[in-house]
C-alpha cells in the first residue's frame, strides 16, 4: 500500500489584483474567492483521492466564480468512482457555468480543469484547457496532460514543431475549457487512463502561472532538490514570482510513499 502526502498553494502573483485560480484537495478548496493566497496540506488515508487545479477566466470577479463552480462541483463526485463519472462531472460543471453566462448577458466566463484521481494505488489523469499535470519518476519529468490550445493543435497537425509551441501566438488561445455551450462544441477531456503508482512518484498539477514562468527543466530541478511537497510547492511559487509573477499561480504536489506496515 502507498501513502500520499499532498500540499497545495495558490497565489495571485505580482501583477494581478485578484486570484482567479482555485484548487481541490480531497474535499477542500478556496471557498472565499477574495483570498489572494490560500494553502492546504493533506496526508490522511482515504478510499479515493481527488486533486484538481482550475484557472478561471473572465475578468472582474467572473474568473473566480468559474473556477469556484468547477471545484465545488467536484464535491458531488468525490465519494464516487470519479473515473466512471468524469463525463458527468464535465457536463454538470459546464452547464452551471453556461447558466452564469446567460445570467450575465453573455459575458465570457470559463475555467480550465486538470485533475488527478487515485483509486487503489492507480492513477487517472484528466484535463480540459492548458492547466497541466506532470509525473516525476526516476528523476524524469513527464507531462501527462495535453494542452487544449491552438498552438498544440498546430503541433498535432505537424505545422509547427513542439519546441516552437511556447513562442507561438496561439499558446494561450484555448480550444476547450469549461464554459462553452454544447451547440458550439462538445467538450472532450484529455484522459490518461489507469496506471500503477510507484513509491516515490511525485505528481504536479499547476496553472499556467507556473508553466509560463518556469521551464519543465526548472520544475524538474526543483523537485530533485527538495524533498517534501510543501517545500516543492513553496519554491515553485517563489521562483515563478521572482521571474515576474505575471499571472496567478497554483500548484498541487502529491508524493507517493510506501506505507509502513507494523506487525
Give an account of the 3D structure.
There is one protein chain. This protein has 263 residues and is of the alpha+beta class. It has one domain (2-258): PPM-type phosphatase domain (Phosphatase 2c, domain 1). It has six helices and 13 strands. It has helices at residues 62-73, 82-103, 150-156, 208-211, 216-225, 229-242, and strands spanning 2-11, 21-25, 28-29, 37-42, 48-57, 110-111, 113-119, 122-128, 132-137, 140-143, 190-196, 202-206, 249-258. Strands 2, 3, 5, 6, 7, 8 and 11 form a seven-stranded antiparallel sheet that branches. The protein has a six-stranded antiparallel sheet with strand order 4-1-13-12-9-10. Strand 2 and strand 3 form a beta hairpin. Helix 1 runs antiparallel to helix 2 (82-103). It is globular. The two termini are 15 Å apart. The mean pLDDT is 95.
CATH superfamily: PPM-type phosphatase domain
Note the total helix count.
Answer: 6
Structural class: alpha+beta
The shape is globular
Order of helices and strands: EEEEEHHEEEEEHEEHHHE
Strand content: 25-35%
- State the CATH topology: Phosphatase 2c, domain 1
Which CATH-level-2 architecture?
4-Layer Sandwich
Question: How would a textbook summarize the main sheet?
Answer: 7 strands, antiparallel
Mean pLDDT: 95
Whole-number total of structural domains? 1
Q: Identify the CATH class.
A: Alpha Beta
Q: Unreliable runs, pLDDT <50, ≥5 residues?
A: none
Alpha carbon gyration radius: 17 Å
Question: How widely separated are the two ends?
Answer: 15 Å
Amino acid at each position: 500500500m502507498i501513502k500520499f502526502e499532498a500540499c497545495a498553494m495558490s497565489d495571485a502573483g505580482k501583477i494581478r489584483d485578484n486570484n482567479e485560480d482555485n484548487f481541490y484537495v480531497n474535499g477542500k478548496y478556496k471557498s472565499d474567492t477574495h483570498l489572494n493566497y490560500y494553502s492546504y496540506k493533506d496526508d490522511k488515508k482515504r478510499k479515493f483521492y481527488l486533486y484538481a487545479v482550475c484557472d478561471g477566466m473572465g475578468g472582474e470577479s467572473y474568473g473566480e466564480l468559474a473556477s469556484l463552480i468547477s471545484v465545488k462541483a467536484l464535491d458531488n463526485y468525490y465519494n464516487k468512482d470519479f473515473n466512471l463519472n468524469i463525463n458527468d462531472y464535465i457536463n454538470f460543471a459546464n452547464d452551471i457555468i453556461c447558466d452564469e453566462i446567460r445570467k450575465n448577458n453573455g459575458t465570457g466566463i470559463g475555467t480550465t480543469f486538470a485533475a488527478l484521481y487515485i483509486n487503489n494505488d492507480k492513477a487517472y489523469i484528466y484535463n480540459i484547457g492548458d492547466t497541466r499535470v506532470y509525473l516525476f519518476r526516476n528523476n524524469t519529468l513527464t507531462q501527462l496532460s495535453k494542452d487544449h490550445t491552438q498552438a498544440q493543435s498546430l503541433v498535432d497537425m505537424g505545422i509547427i514543431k513542439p519546441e516552437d509551441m511556447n513562442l507561438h501566438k496561439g499558446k494561450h488561445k484555448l480550444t476547450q475549457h469549461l464554459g462553452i455551450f454544447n451547440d458550439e462544441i462538445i467538450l472532450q477531456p484529455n484522459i490518461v487512463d489507469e496506471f500503477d503508482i510507484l513509491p516515490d512518484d511525485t505528481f504536479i498539477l499547476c496553472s499556467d502561472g507556473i508553466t509560463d514562468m518556469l521551464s519543465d527543466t526548472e520544475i524538474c530541478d526543483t523537485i530533485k532538490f527538495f524533498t517534501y511537497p510543501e517545500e516543492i510547492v513553496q519554491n515553485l511559487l517563489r521562483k515563478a514570482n521572482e521571474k515576474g509573477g505575471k499571472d496567478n499561480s497554483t500548484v498541487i504536489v502529491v508524493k507517493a510513499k510506501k506505507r509502513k506496515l507494523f506487525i
